[in-house]
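Record type: monomer structure entry
Structure origin: computed from sequence
Chain ID: A
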Amino acid sequence: MAEAHQAVGFRPSLTSDAGEVELGAPVLHEICLSGLRSWKRHLSRFWNDFLTGVFPASPLSWLFLFSAIQLACFLQLDPSLGLMEKIKESLPDWGGQHHRLRGVLAAALFASCLWGTLIFTLHVALRLLLSYHGWLLEPHGAMSSPTKTWLALVRIFSGRHPMLFSYQRSLPRQPVPSVQDTVRKYLESVRPVLSDKDFDWTSGVAQEFLKLQASLLQWYLQLKSWWASNYVSDWWEEFVYLRSRNSLMVNSNYYLMDFLYVTPTPVQAARAGNAVHALLLYRHRLDRQEILPTLLMGMRPLCSAQYEKIFNTTRIPGVHRDHIRHLRDSRHVAVFHRGRFFRVGTHSQSRLLSPRALEQQFQRILDDPSPACPHEEHLAALTAAPRDTWAQVRRSLKTQAQEALEAVEGAAFFVSLDSEPAGLTREDPAASLDAYAHALLAGRGHDRWFDKSFSLIVFSNGKLGLSVEHSWADCPISGHMWEFTLATECFQLGYSADGHCKGHPDPSLPQPQRLHWDLPDKIHLSISLALRAAKTLSGNIECHVFPFSRFGKSFIKRCHLSSDSFIQTTLQLAHFRDRGQFCLTYESTMTRLFLEGRTETVRSCTREACNFVRAMEDKEKTDAQCLALFRLAVDKHQALLKAAMSGQGVDRHLFALYVVSQFLHLQSPFLDQVHSEQWQLVTSQIPVQQIHLFDVHNYPDYVSSGGGFGPADDHGYGVSYMFMGDDVITFHISSNKSSTRTDSHRLGQRIQDALLDVAALFPEGERLKRRGLGEEDSEKAPVPGGPLSSDNICTS
């Protein structure tokens, strides 16, 4: 999602005027550090690694094996073929009375060695099995005999009750693609958007790169791939995120919305109490590894490493680079309301506070009449300032207000109790949704602590939202947590008839602790400047959200097409109609099939998609011709998506090559060209990962409406979408108001028209379009099945 903005602005501060290649310390030093960081992470979670590292075996399996060996010895059998006797001879001689003890120790050592060997063999076998990606390349709905055999073997070697991190030791490492293949795919991806002259120049510098520099840079990447857990992910976090000096607001954060049509309670404190309790329940399950690992096809595990930093995590600003601070535990949340900061404890005598007790604490904050201290109200605007500025100010703040700063940065997460309502309203559905998205993405510039891993935002009418900082993990991780939170607080915890949390208040709880900031005079000017810049940045963002209800995933499935590829190809048509030209398109997909994998880019603007768009705009082309081209475009997108997921994408490999070239002070016109590209259309799908938590058939409105992010280019769009059930697709569009080339509402209308035009190519789609022409514009009435009733709509 938001990583596209950072990737576009990526300029590592490693450039030098020196043109010579230096084979010395810098790059080798960085590769060594990558490996050391990997091993340090393994050692820091040794106990959890032991519990999950023996998977699919268990500690009890060692006891079973030891008992079996002892039984064999009792029956005068030697399953070790003489090895136990040699082990016994090597043990110290403690005298005749300890002869039996030596035998038991020898059996225990032999059992341990045999047990470890079996576990290692299982891990190696499972890693080899998980390295197979042929299943990804097969046609939808078809499964070859090798894949069926592979599935059966994975089922045998995978065990029955995995914990969250059980598969980490068995995941394969992300492969380094062939540099020749990467360059070829890159040239193919830019051909539709370059003129003949520009393409010839790009091809020339690409061939020069392959001849002169590629093999050397590739060698370093291969070396790193053998030594570190992942050849690209730590550099991606370092240079794309932590070394970025831009404001986190809009540039690095993204948002997730509440239920679109339903607000379980209008009581702000109650909603906050249940939501915070549900989030902490998720953390408890996370600490105990009770969250099941994500499995594709029910069998293929994804990497779970990013789950470690969801809670108790803060991005600390630095002058040249930030760092991520993660605490093992935190027993409080930081709360912001009307310019004041509070510390709210979440546990009492080592037990998690009940939702009703948390509601009581939040209500006390809402009822507190004390005013904000001078400049305290706008203090959080500093977290929206450029990182160098915030780092310098934070040094003074840490000296003068260390306790308050520690309470915020050491919190489990940040909670903002907004004084304004939000969400869909009957009076103006379109404008209310746009304002809701804008409030989550940017707020007022001073009411979010953007450094925290995520901020829970609770509006005055009970509506919820999440603002997430991007560096520590990607959207599927926070989305997984958010789905659990919404389902738990609504369906399991629930509310009483009067809208309050169930249970009883606890009068013995101490009052929430008001945080006091001793702000020196020199910080006041910095706060004012940061607030002005944050308001300017916030005011420049235009957000547009609309649910498209003419058709959804079920219709696309009946067309026997991939739903994501259907939308991506349609977006090319909509964007061309909006701008009159094609552009590089960034779609984020995951590489979590590999250990510590994060994301890869799918370059969705393909030659096939462009041919389809041109055909749709050519009145002489028949529907049959357009449909044939559409299917080719969808098939091409699917091939690119599967290649990216299996580690054969383009952009992360080129990124890593560029980083190595900078370490070596090696200038490459080709790599410079690659990393000067502008992504004017950035897209992302937000999937529903835990369908079992939501009953979309009986409660179709109880599904999160997804989220969005800012544009990656000053004259570009950010577009995310989510399939809500089977018949609704929610789109989130962002752009800059300062641009004369973009308009989020205009693109939204183009998307709706393009979806209907594409659907009309199919026999059933003609009926959908005719029905759509007879109804009001979906922006004016974004209601699937009429859920805008007084019982379930949020009113402000």
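Annotation 1: The radius of gyration is 28 Å.
Annotation 2: Residues 56-161 form one domain.
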